[in-house]
């Protein structure tokens, strides 16, 4: 299945911000309920260990395209010892500040947020640390996606890209089930809003956008071989690149990942895909 570059409705500048927040709130609810990114916690731990971010005081994770908060509330608790020296920053081009504030409170301020708009291709220099993206890298066309990686390399920052969506008919089918679950569970999303029910049940804009954008997300997602081609076109740097699909158990949805971090020595580009765990 060829990759198709098409728009997602909720990421457009003309899309109403209140509805965008409802869409990202719904996605966040679903990700939290199903803990879709929990399987990559050991992989993320190894990245932090490799880069030294976990042990260095004042080091941070900068999450780009965080939407309604990303998976960090669950993932941070799964890291060994929940290291108190690790600060996690949530950012987005259209920051959902209400959702970010909820995550910060629930994490007891280990997770915080950057209140201004952040472009993944031009991250403010004051935001230092491992740059992560969960279910958002596919939003960008190849030239833009490569610019995101190049921006991290130019800043000397490690980067971790993780995508649960895949360009496969099976994943597209699961998208319908995911949206149906969110449709049923909407009254459970907090904070409760009557307007959320209005735009879900009476005028079903939210589920239509979730379904449309969910299918488009699958069609836009990069496969590992495309990510490898992308990093080969980056300006030379002493970076190690690891690319693959992570799946710990039979029947578990594989998560596509791209990890890059600076090496003290070695070749200018040492791409060594990490094999999926059995």
Tell me the radius of gyration.
18 Å
Largest sheet: 8 strands, mixed
Structural class: alpha/beta
Instruction: Indicate the proportion of strand residues.
Output: 5-15%
Distance between the termini: 26 Å
Give me the CATH fold name of the domain at 35-167 and 221-271: Rossmann fold
Tally of separate helices: 9
Shape: globular
Cross-sheet strand order for the largest sheet: 3-2-1-4-5-7-6-8
Low-confidence stretches: 53-57, 266-278
The CATH architecture of the domain at 35-167 and 221-271 comes to: 3-Layer(aba) Sandwich
Tell me the total number of β-strands. 8
**What is the CATH class of the domain at 35-167 and 221-271?**
Alpha Beta
The percent of residues in helical segments reads 25-40%
Along the chain, the helix and strand elements come as HHEHEHEEHEHHHHEEE
CATH superfamily of the domain at 35-167 and 221-271: Vaccinia Virus protein VP39
Topology:
Elements: H1 17-34, H2 41-51, E1 60-64, H3 72-78, E2 87-90, H4 97-106, E3 111-113, E4 130-134, H5 142-155, E5 159-163, H6 169-185, H7 194-202, H8 205-220, H9 224-232, E6 239-246, E7 255-262, E8 269-271
Parallel strand pairs: 1-2, 1-4, 2-3, 4-5, 6-8
Antiparallel strand pairs: 5-7, 6-7
Helix pairs in contact: 1-8, 6-8
